[in-house]
Amino acid sequence: MTDAIVAEGLVKRYGSVVALNGLDLKVPEGTIMGLLGPNGAGKTTAVRVFTTLLDPDEGSARVAGLDVRKQADELRKRIGLSGQYAAVDDNLTGFENLDMVGRLYHLGRARSRERARELLTRFDLEDAADRPVKGYSGGMRRRLDLAGALVAKPSVLFLDEPTTGLDPRSRLGMWDVIEELVKGGTTVLLTTQYLEEADRLADQIAVIDQGKVIAEGTADQLKEQVGGERLELSVATTAELAISKEALADLAVGAMESDERQHHLTVPVAGGSGVLMEAIRRLDGESVKVLDIGLRRPTLDDVFLALTGHHADNDSAGDDEK
Amino acid sequence: MKLLQALADGAVVSKRNLIKIKRVPDLLVFSTAAPIMFVLLFAYVFGGSIEIPGMDYREFLMAGIFAQTVLFGATITGSGLAEDMTKGIIDRFRSLPMARSAVLVGRTTSDLVNNALVIVIMMITGLIVGWRIHSSPLEALAAVAILLLFAYAFSWAMAWIGLLVRSPEVFNNASFIFIFPITYIANTFVQSERLPSGLRHIAEWNPVSAVTLAARELFGNTSPLQTPPDVWPLQHPVLASLGWVVVFLLIFVPLANYQYKRAVAR
């Protein structure tokens, strides 16, 4: 398999701030790579280099076999970009926005119009097609922006935080749209602050911190490093804590951690809510009075803590479990 | 072929900007409301106290109003670009295989169309308050052409400032400092020879004075009782105006392009 995106030692500095610090990345053709990291990790800078918006200070990058610096003109014909700030014109209608993009991809008048209508239907924007974008909801804007990135049927698609700032319902809608999209075999580079999003959409995940890839693998591989899901419970007494430990021992997929003073137990598990149900049944059977119990999935912050020893340093990343 | 493609791309971007005029008509209303008030103010309030030898002040006034109007109209280029810079749309444009020049060419072209529209409205206003064209239709057309050409060249200067400041609010204040003296220390509303000597020199060499006088002469709004000041640009206002257009384009097209590249490479 050939690689649709290859980056070697990308460096980009803004004065004393190092946005990219020797970023290496390979994305095989037809796969979805999730670039995971907190704000300021360098995700957007990387996307801007790949989409020819920004020249790197050092290193090289090839997208669809073309050098981002030397073959930028040729490359732009083959990529689509949908950014974190929806790049649509408020004063134009949805149709006019897509038609304009088609014209600028040089599809010609008839083909541009046809493609615009096609995409509006596909992204469920038919009814709003001839209304100015000004009146669109946040979710509709993002869908239109994504449609704009697809006008020329690009072979490599860049989605820079496609769901940041969306409400949970629009986010789910957006995920459906993206999942549908990538069935077509397009190579996608997706940046996100949400492990859950990368987990759902990406084949491979690269964790990025301070302008560098610090870990790479499938969602499962990363979660293994982080410890995966955890069952957390609190009980009233030390005696009950001991009983709980014994009752749940064979559900644990790793070492249990218990806090004798707080009567708090953390059990690494696998299997989702089924395990939670089983745990509750067992504890009930032992007549343990459970004060609090819950399943905790690893967040970006957990990944960071496990990989780097420091927090993601990001106010919006940690509280994002839905 | 490449040039044709670039022009086509510019036309697409220009169409985008023109749709905005249609969707947000306030823009056109406000860019004509102020000059119309100026016409009324000078025609009926100040005009009575300003004496122009050999003619009614309103005949003298309108060429100055036209010059003022297209200059203010050209500032839309700067505020429009500054506004675009704050949004994601420029990134979208830059990720497309379109001509690099299209954003600036499209912007200045749509503002030229806007200015043409505004000048028609102002000519109708002038006709209502008693201004008349005393020359041939061809000469009148030449007057309009010179006003629009100068406005087009000037909008490249505004583009440069807009890209330099990158904020529509800052641009509006910054351009004011620039545009106020160039519009009013000139022969737009009074005869430059009546100004105190220091200002008079500035006014005589001000490009806006040449453009205003060129329009005034081509519309036939001058009188044999007036003799243009004895400086080259006002002796040859049409040639001088065209010269200024070339100078402005030579300076500000490269500057605006340079600043555009700088502004987006972040």
Automatic annotation (TrEMBL), chain A:
NCBIfam families: drrA (TIGR01188). GO terms for molecular function: ATP binding. It is found in: Cell membrane. InterPro entries: AAA+_ATPase (IPR003593), ABC_transporter-like_ATP-bd (IPR003439), ABC_transporter-like_CS (IPR017871), ABC_transporter_ATP-binding (IPR050763), DrrA (IPR005894), P-loop_NTPase (IPR027417). Belongs to the ABC transporter superfamily. Drug exporter-1 (DrugE1) (TC 3.A.1.105) family. The keyword Membrane applies. Keywords: Antibiotic resistance, ATP-binding, Cell membrane, Membrane, Nucleotide-binding, Translocase, Transport. Residues 5-235 form the ABC transporter domain. It is a peripheral membrane protein. This is ATP-binding cassette domain-containing protein. It comes from Lentzea miocenica.
UniProtKB/TrEMBL annotation, chain B:
This is Transport permease protein. It comes from the Bacteria. The chain crosses the membrane at residues 27-48, 60-82, 116-134, 140-163, 170-190, 238-258. Keywords: Antibiotic resistance, Cell membrane, Membrane, Transmembrane, Transmembrane helix, Transport. It is a multi-pass membrane protein. It is found in: Cell membrane; Membrane. Belongs to the ABC-2 integral membrane protein family. It comes from Lentzea miocenica.
